[in-house]
Design brief:
By secondary structure, this protein is of the alpha/beta class. The chain is built from 10 helices and 12 strands. It folds into 2 domains: 142 residues, 3-Layer(aba) Sandwich (Rossmann fold), CATH 3.40.50; 120 residues, Dihydrodipicolinate Reductase, domain 2 (2-Layer Sandwich), CATH 3.30.360. The longest helix is centred in the middle third of the chain and has 17 residues.
Amino acid sequence: MSAVRVGLVGAGPWAKIFHAPMITGGPETELTATWARRPEAAQEIADEFGGTVASSFEDLLDSVDALVFAVPPFIQADLAAQAAAAGKPMLLEKPLGVDLAQAEKLVQAIDEAGVPTQVMFTNRYSPKIRDFLDKARAQTPIGAVGYYINQAALPGGTFATPWRLEKGNLLDLGPHVLDTLDAAVGPIVEVRGEGDLKRWYILTATHEGGVISQAQLSLTSPVVEDVAGVKVYTEQGELSCEFVGKDGDPEAPNVIRREFAEVVTSGKSHEVDVHRALYIQRLLEQAAPKN
């Protein structure tokens, strides 16, 4: 089977750290072209990882089989709708959009186009976390806690990007924690949040069956290393997982690449697709501060 020709949308820090190495890390996909709002950033990707620099987003669409997105959510939502209309399978970032209305509009465009999708809930591709989820689902939960605490958005931080600084920790870190808690303990029927989105935010979720979970989120805490993961307490004991990161599961990018290639070649969306992402974004909207 020939490699899937992938177009990378975006050339920021995360594209260089994760997306480009993931695409080029195995035979299933090749990085054919990169497009970014700053051509010089796209050229840096091409110089290090190969492929060409697309002169426009439309040119990128014309030259590839599928797209991988690494741009802020408000940009992703508009461009992904164009890609859907062009019939391109997509590996999207979460959140899908900067707000629920934007996410719903994008999913409608994707459904109307009928293109397959996969979403970068990074932890869901870690074999270690998949094993954790299988064990958690087989036990009887009592309660759970989640946490994602780092200093990524402090001044000078790698991820002190404008949209994160404006929107805070809920949209960036919340998807990881809520998705994992929901997958481990059971569907969340209600979630509320309190605290400061720019400093420290706490989520309290009620799952089907009445089990309660809580999570702490911060992008601006001066910790030495990220503190990120989930613990589930069950009638049978305690289960825990740490999220993929600098010291996380190195196999996750390989799983993402292989499974995205299968999405593209089969024409069938991944289990973790835009509908899963929209479900999580609705929970984020519910958990947002009520002004």
